[in-house]
Amino acid sequence: MSLYILDTSALLCYLRDEAGAEKVARILKKDCGMHRVNLGEVYYGVLKRDGLEKANEVYGALLQYPIRFIDDLTDAMLLTTGKFSTAPFLSQKTTISDRLDKKAS
What we know:
single chain, three-stranded parallel beta sheet, about 10% strand
């Protein structure tokens, strides 16, 4: 059996019903995984486009999907960096990297 690994763009495509969404829907019915960093990026993408309420709703719904999340980041860290990422000139990769550096020290 194969494990499918989802990335941010695939899940956003599915959520936004864009071209390729049906393929992602089929994958979601199989054995699939995703890193929680990607989950945070999805949260950020929805937050930036649709606001905090929708981002929280989508985040909660995705946690119910049969996705095996690689879980080496906490929910609080992901949500915080997603919110910080909406600040001008900050990317989520920068804020997560900075937080991981501080956590390690």
